[in-house]
Amino acid sequence: MIDHENYHLVLPLTSLLEYLCLHITKSKVLLMKARVTKATALIELGYLNEAYFIYRKLVTLKHMPKYGTRDSTFTARLDGDDFHFSADDCYHNNLSPEDAKN
Question: Domain residues for 64?
Answer without folding.
Answer: 7-89
